[in-house]
Amino acid sequence: MRVGWSQEKGENLRELADFLGQYVVSRVIEDARAGAVSRFEGTAEISRDGTGAAYGESGAMMIGDQRFVAERRYLWRANSVRIDVLFEDGRAFHDFDPEAGGLASAHLCGEDMYRGGYDFTDWPRWSVTWDVQGPRKAYKSVTWYERSAAFALAE
To answer: Within 13 A of 18's CA, how many CA atoms are on the CB side?
Structure first.
């Protein structure tokens, strides 16, 4: 893992390169409107692309007794001290501070507001929480990322 050094602060700082790798992903989605809890179990890979990193996730979404294949892709771009997360087509989604974590920028999707945050207190295990509220959606999603054993052995 490559970690930058801040001479001003005298401490190690996370950067985009520190997120590269393969992860085991688990997500719990609590839907307030439906009164239901859904789960996602799968893997994610964050790998270099021409201008930053590509995030790819695949696995199974479990809603009640139904199971679906689920995938998503994003682009990650270093932006000064933050990381921009873009949809696969290049539209902005949000950004976050890779060192401090905390609140991500909010994202309005139609009339539904996404407010999220990153938690790195248990690094290299980390999580992302989204609270989504609006006329069409009302849910909380928490996703945990843990380096896969295969990646950890390769480091």
So the answer is: 17
Instruction: Output the six-digit token pair for 154.
Output: 């390769």
3 state SS of 2: coil
Backbone dihedral angles phi then psi of residue 90, each to the nearest 5 degrees: 95, -5
- Helix/strand/coil for 144: strand
Report the SS3 class of residue 16: helix
| Strand, coil or helix: 91 | coil
Q: Report the distance separating Cα 92 and Cα 107, nearest Å.
A: 9
Cα–Cα separations (whole angstroms), residue 27 to 15, 43, 79, 128, 142? 24, 11, 27, 9, 5
**CA-wise closest residue to 126 among 102, 93, 150:** 102
* End-to-end Cα separation, the chain, in angstroms: 7
Q: How far apart (Å, rounded) are the C-alpha atoms in residues 12 and 38? A: 37
| Residue that the structure tokens 């480091």 belong to | 155
Tens digits of per-residue pLDDT, 101-153?
988 889 999 999 999 999 999 999 999 999 999 999 999 999 999 999 765 54
pTM, two decimals, is 0.86
